[in-house]
Write a structure and sequence with these properties.
about 25% helix; binds zinc ion; single chain; elongated
Length: about 160
Amino acid sequence: MQSPAYRSAVGDGRGHNTAGARGSMTVHGGLLRMDTPGNGHIFDITPGVASVVRTSGVERGLVCVFARGSTVAVTTMEFEPGGVRDLQALLDRLVPVQGDYEHNRLNHDTNSHAHMRAAVIGPSETIPVVDGALVLGTWQQIVLIDFDDRPRSRTVTVEVVS
Ligand code: ZN
């Protein structure tokens, strides 16, 4: 298994205040970038998200973790080899690679299963930040799953709102 390689871990961490009619909200942003082999590979991105939260200096708020792309997903799970293989096996059973897919037929494409799996899991998670830290269970990690059928470069947008 290939370990995640962050090309860049965090943004500037500075807050951008957006004053509105009903008050104001401060947003601290960061980007995580990684090269993935695709094909259902699962990365633990918790350290990258935690780094953005730490840099933001936010004590209490929410962090939104969003993966850009229609063949990639973000969720939480216990990130250990058994859980990783079981989730990959479940998704293989749920949405097989080979199938009678309209997307592949209409677009001469090969990755309809990747689009379907990404849509089922979803592209983002929102996690509370309390006392400057992510509120996650001991055995709960934030993961990115790349379902595409070829290697990809992925960008995850991490926005801390307070
Ligand atoms: Zn496609």
